[in-house]
Amino acid sequence: MTLVAASAVPSVKAARAWRARPGLMIAGALAFCAIVYLLPMLSLFGWAFQGQGSSGASLAQLSRLIGDDTYHYAFFTTFKIAAITTLICALIGYPYAYLMATTGPRLAMLLTAAVMIPFWTSVLARSLAWMILLGRKGVVNEWLTGLGLLERPAALLFNSIGVQIGMVHVLLPFMVLPIWSILSRLDPGLPRAARSLGASPAAAFIHVTLPLSLPGLAAGATLVFMFAIGFYITPALLGGPNDLTIASLIEMVVRDLLDWPFGAMLSLALLGLVALVFACGAAFAGAGRIAGMEGR
User: Fold this and answer.
1) How far apart are CA 292 and CA 84, in angstroms?
2) How many other CB atoms are found less than 10 A from the CB of residue 103?
3) Residues 209, 217: Cα–Cα separation, whole Å
4) How far apart are CA 131 and CA 41, in angstroms?
5) Superfamily of domain 80-292
6) pLDDT, tens digit, for every residue of 123-143?
7) CA pseudo-torsion sign 202, 204, 206, 207
8) Domain boundaries, the chain
């Protein structure tokens, strides 16, 4: 017993020594972040502003990005797809989250499972499944023609319709969960108090519930818009030639054209757009809520 106790003393002292030096753990975390995040970012900046045949910096890639309308169209298409996806997710996600927050425990559990289960399947598998469902001989067209709603199969694939359907399916949980986290913590006595003062159910919702849940809606919209801007797999599989996004353009420039400097400039532009969207959302909803560090 004495020997065991004596051997345990150094380990206890070592553990106390580590706990007494939190700066070492912080330094390790900073070193990890520097290796994983800072070095790749520095590499991107180096490629994007690399001069031709010299070691100096150059703005040639930036001038190329600003001066060519082809790249402007890709940015416009990306913003349009992201905005429509965010709007549809908000229109579907808010009522769904409201039902999750106000219904009974059994139904709320089923609704929560329906939101969380898609996370168990990869985005690639879900996009490929939509290719099967939305094809001219897919389940959706067979169902619509069988009911007599369509005379011939509709073009639901390789266009913006397929892209929006696939992206809404993938990104809808990121809208539902932030809204639900706010609505589930609202005091249910507030709408009842408004109704006791003569407000109708619709007026109580518009003047009480909706304003209090706006930070969650803003957080969900910011998340969905940020993810939609950088989405690659779903637009590449379900979209057509008119649905060229920034992520697809980067892949084309780097893989097919082997133009690494311009690909790096496009990546920096995409990163800047995402940071701008995050800053706008954080100004309204709070950075902690968007990052998932605040529950209310």
Assistant:
1) 24
2) 13
3) 12
4) 35
5) MetI-like (1.10.3720.10)
6) 888 888 998 899 888 888 888
7) positive
8) 80-292
pTM: 0.81
Closest CA to 237 of 152, 116, 134, 87: 134
For residues 295 and 290, the model is more confident at 290
Q: Quickly tell me which residue has 């520097």 as its tokens.
A: 34
Determine the Cα–Cα distance for residues 243 and 80; give it in Å rounded to an integer: 10
Distance between CA atoms of residues 119 and 70, nearest Å: 35
Question: Quick one: how many helices (H) and strands (E) in the chain?
Answer: 16, 0
- CA distances to 159, 224, 243, 244, 246 from 73, rounded to whole Å, are 16, 21, 10, 8, 9
Q: 115 near 173, Cβ under 8 Å?
A: yes
| Alpha carbon 296 to chain centroid, angstroms | 20
**Closest by alpha carbon to 191, among 205, 181, 178, 179?**
205
DSSP letters, 85-119, are HHHHHHHHHHHHHHHHHHS-HHHHHHHHHHHHGGG
